[in-house]
Amino acid sequence: MSEIVIKNLTKRYEIRGNEVIALSGINITIEKGDIYGIIGMSGAGKSTLVRSINFLEKPTEGQVLIEGVDLAELSEKQLRKKRSEIGMIFQNFNLLEQKNVLENICFPLEITGSKKREARERAKELLHLVHLEDKERAYPSQLSGGQKQRVAIARALATNPNILLCDEATSALDPQTTAAILSLLREINEKLGITIVIITHQMSVVTEICNKVAVIDNGRLVEEGYVKDIFENPKSDAAKVLISGKEIRFTPLEHLDSSYKVRIVFGENSAYEPIISNVILKFQAPVNILKADTRNVNGRAVGEMILSLPDEEELQQSIITYLREKGLAVTEVTEHV
Amino acid sequence: MFDAKVIQMLLEGIKDTLYMTIVSTVVGYALGLPLGILLYVSSDKGLKPNAVLYRIGDFVCNIIRSIPFLILLILLIPFTRLVVGQSYGSTATIVPLVICAAPYIARVVESALNEVDGGVIEAARAMGASNLQIVFKVLLVEARISLITGFTITTGLLLGYSAMSGTVGGGGLGDIAVRYGYYRWQTDIMLVTVVLLILIFQVIQNLGTWIARRLDHRKR
């Protein structure tokens, strides 16, 4: 049975008499043990989508099934119980400012009515898991952003959930802290077998730890599948823009624009061969490298390049064929890179 | 001038003033706190919006707060007589003080709860907390500094109002100040009562600030 099934989900709001469609006809299936990324620009509807998974937002149409149970059919009390079995962390951490670290982690257990002593023991175990043993008595105001998110993760895991929802959990953190939090999430996923759903606008987060991804654009699901496949061969415009990573670009490449561009993606095997040199030697034609980058996709080093090819169409086709024969993913790039 | 009798009277006055201020603040909170929670919960951004309930609470609070205290004191004489059996003395003064304080406290509580970060409330909901748990385990805990500050301000306000009730025979230091200072031209006794009121106010305010600072873990 799938861990989370979202069926034909639509969410509409009424704002001052105008109807706003936040999400429309979303279908997503998340299996047990997945680290599932939901990516989109801000305002795409991904926050609403993740809040539908624990029914903080009730869908206008469609269903959400958690381990086969339709959330819409639960009573208010049953729904609260179900929510307590789904952990959630947030961009702004949302810790209780007037409670110390240990009390914060105990809090969900207090809500579900656990014994105080058991809750404290569980909290100490979790502090160990998130590597914050020495911060037991600190208050959130004394912690750094990364430490706060670790406390939030420990708190979300207190009730032993099968699912952990992360709403832009690394967006307020610097790159180093982001990497540390992501590796903690992966550790949790591997050690405890928890299914993790990650909402983000950063492609790097998805390539770093997710195995599957859904791309949301304007309230619609535009692309879904394995991260590896979508990274190598993005089909939707939204995915292409997110992969090109406009927000982390340093040089405005429009100036380097030429008539015909391709994006090639190569894995570890092909990285040993000097492919670009070979192309130039073989076809006796100039190839311009507009952009080159290596990224970590699910723990694999993956190279990415955007090449500008000579104008002659026949030559272009033979170069592309040659690159494909060498096992590279090649896609035409039409937008400004 | 300041013989044993006057000193005795002043001590009585201090006792009555403290009695009126403390009892009316406590009873005022007992009524105002639930009313403030009700206003917060039923407001359109609250945990369980209810326009009718909110409008009633809002209206009652505004009506009572728009009546000047001295007039409220006189308006409530029949009601006070009904509750405590007489309309003068410090116990009788507590009735209008409470009626005046409750809606004021309700507003203080409402604004304190409004300050609690919505994200924290959402996190509690995601943990499966019920509205009741959110009120008692999240809102009142997170807002406690504003609540204590509000409590201090209210106590200071009621200290002043209790002195005002002296004009209609309310007892306490205000009563002494009016009787000796205004009716008998004994300015020295009036000045002493004023100094005493200032001292009491300082103690209340500083104690409140000290407690609030000690309990606040937000910034160090």
Tell me the structural class of chain B.
Answer: mainly alpha
- Number of DSSP strands of chain B? 0
> Would you state the CATH class of chain B?
Mainly Alpha
- Rg estimate of chain B, integer Å: 20 Å
Q: What is the CATH architecture annotation of chain B?
A: Orthogonal Bundle
Q: Main beta sheet of chain A, described?
A: 6 strands, mixed
Helix fraction of chain B, binned, reads over 70%
**Low-confidence sequence ranges of chain B:** none
Helix content of chain A: 25-40%
Largest interface chains and counts: A-B, 30 and 25 residues
Discrete helix count of chain B? 10
Write the layout of secondary structure elements.
The complex is a heterodimer of chains A (337) and B (220).
Chain A: E1 4-15, E2 18-30, E3 35-39, H1 46-53, E4 61-66, E5 69-70, H2 76-84, E6 86-90, H3 101-111, H4 116-129, H5 145-157, E7 163-167, H6 175-192, E8 195-200, H7 203-209, E9 212-217, E10 220-226, H8 227-232, H9 237-244, E11 261-266, H10 275-283, E12 288-297, E13 300-308, H11 313-325, E14 329-333
Parallel strand pairs in A: 3-8, 3-9, 6-7, 7-8
Antiparallel strand pairs in A: 1-2, 1-4, 4-5, 9-10, 11-13, 11-14, 12-13
Chain B: H1 4-42, H2 51-66, H3 69-75, H4 77-84, H5 90-114, H6 118-126, H7 131-142, H8 144-164, H9 172-183, H10 187-215
Overview of the structural elements:
Chain A has a 6-stranded mixed sheet, sandwiched between helices. A 4-stranded antiparallel sheet of chain A has the order 2-1-4-5, with helices on one face. Chain A has 2 domains: 4-232, 3-Layer(aba) Sandwich (Rossmann fold), CATH 3.40.50.300; 249-333, Alpha-Beta Plaits (2-Layer Sandwich), CATH 3.30.70. Chain A starts with a strand and ends with a strand. Chain A is α/β, with parallel strands linked by helices. Helix content of chain A is 34%, strand content 29%. Chain B has a single domain, classed as MetI-like fold. Chain B is elongated and about 70 Å long. The mean pLDDT of chain B is 92. At the A-B interface, α2, β6 and α3 of A face α6 and α7 of B.
